[in-house]
Design brief:
alpha+beta, disordered N terminus, Phage tail protein beta-alpha-beta fold, single chain, four-stranded mixed β-sheet, 14 strands
């Protein structure tokens, strides 16, 4: 009796939640479902559970269909805006609006899936759901069990024979089987290419870059694409930062799922939208304004480049120990390490003594003033006057030696 009451209560809450979340779903269909559950009394508890799962699966399928329609609508509107030559501001506003709608639908789908999980934890052997427990199978067997209900899959023998272990006691709604299968295959570096509405083909992503759904260079557009789409994404960092950003991003690229390479002054990435969005956060941090500064080349007239570099780093960082022994050629770094202030100096010796300064505008100006002050003082010290003295009673060479020894004793 208690079990029946709990299921009745849970079913009512689920139906109420679904009716509140509906964006594009047919309100009449939801009302009919509530009326059906209120007026119809299934002959058994099992029939009630099956009806609840069937209705929830239909609602989830509707949400996913709405999301797909929104993707198509966004693409069409974007092409129309480009054809009308709208400004970047208008396009940005359009993407912001569409991203809000898509994010809302994604949230509702996630919420519905979570409710499915909570509802089905202690229920087994249900219709429209499955338990992904395959302790000893192959990719081909997994696709046959959970993918063949939606598509015809073409698999090369080397992919179909790959061993895989899937262990779970969690039931999954059938509407999410395709998405989970794609995630599992992606973790093994296997991509899926849609040949037509009925057929899909599997391939190794590292060996074959086919199956790209589109090419994009806009982060706003990337946010509106399906998370499971494979996209060729192009980013254009500042030319002076190209190699540094490429080397840094390369460390975060999932090797089996994504490729990264430099093409001209651009970085080209091919991978899933979900992974590209994560990398975009790192890229945005690298090129954010706090990382951008001015640069200037300052030619030195009298001072040594290494000595002035040591002075500048000591002033801006308060600690020039990371420069090593500036007085020793073998310890002089070509490029000083990043300081806490963000100011950096490159000491150049050829073809002339000079300094390459990188930092904020106020840091650059201050450094130029310091360099000018140092050189002016060096100039004052190096100013000399020549006096002539005619020797009358001694040899000039012997007198010069004596004066030199006296001078050395004085300065010692």
């Amino acid at each position: 009796m208690t079990m029946t009451m709990n299921i009745n209560k849970m079913t009512s809450l689920l139906l109420f939640g679904l009716s509140c979340m509906g964006v594009h779903a047919d309100a009449a269909s939801l009302s009919e479902k509530r009326a059906e559950f209120a007026g119809h009394k299934p002959t058994s508890e099992e029939d009630r559970i099956k009806s609840a799962f069937r209705g929830m699966n239909q609602d989830l399928a509707l949400k996913k269909a709405d999301l797909l329609s929104l993707y198509v609508e966004t693409e069409k509107c974007y092409k129309a805006l480009l054809a009308e030559k709208k400004s970047e501001e208008d396009i940005s506003k359009f993407f912001a609006s569409q991203h809000e709608k898509i994010g809302s639908l994604r949230t509702e789908i996630t919420r519905l899936e979570e409710e499915w999980k909570n509802f089905s934890k202690n229920i087994s052997d249900k219709e429209d759901e499955g338990i992904w427990n395959q302790p000893d199978t192959t990719i081909g067997g997994l696709v046959m069990d959970y993918g063949s209900v939606d598509y015809i899959y073409l698999m090369p023998p080397e992919i179909a024979s790959l061993k895989i272990h899937v262990s779970s006691a969690l039931s999954v709604p059938r509407a999410s089987w395709s998405e989970i299968l794609e995630l599992v295959l992606a973790s093994y570096g296997i991509g899926i290419r849609q040949l037509n509405p009925f057929t899909r083909q599997l391939f190794f992503m590292r060996l074959n870059q086919a199956g790209v759904d589109g090419i994009s260079a806009s982060f706003d557009e990337l946010k509106t694409l399906p998370l499971t789409s494979r996209i060729c994404f192009v980013i254009s960092p500042p030319p002076t930062e190209l190699r540094r950003i490429f080397s840094f991003l390369e460390k975060f690229v999932p090797q089996e799922q994504m490729t990264i390479q430099i093409l001209s002054n651009n970085i080209v990435l091919v991978g899933y939208v979900k992974e590209l969005l994560e990398l975009s956060k790192i890229y945005s941090f690298l090129v954010s304004p706090k990382q951008i500064g001015e640069y200037r080349l300052v030619a030195l007239q009298k001072a040594k480049a290494e000595e002035v570099a040591k002075i500048l780093n000591a002033i801006f960082d308060g600690d020039a120990s990371h420069l090593g022994d500036i007085g020793s050629e073998k310890h002089i770094p070509f490029f000083t390490q990043d300081t806490s202030s963000g100011f950096r100096v490159i000491a150049l010796k050829h073809p002339a003594e000079s300094l390459f300064l990188l930092g904020k505008p106020d840091q650059i100006e201050k450094a130029v003033e310091i360099i000018a002050d140092i050189e002016s003082k060096i100039g004052q010290v190096q100013e000399k006057t020549v006096f002539l003295y005619a020797c009358r009673h001694s040899e000039a060479g012997e007198l010069a030696k004596v004066l030199s020894q006296v001078y050395m004793k004085m300065i010692a």
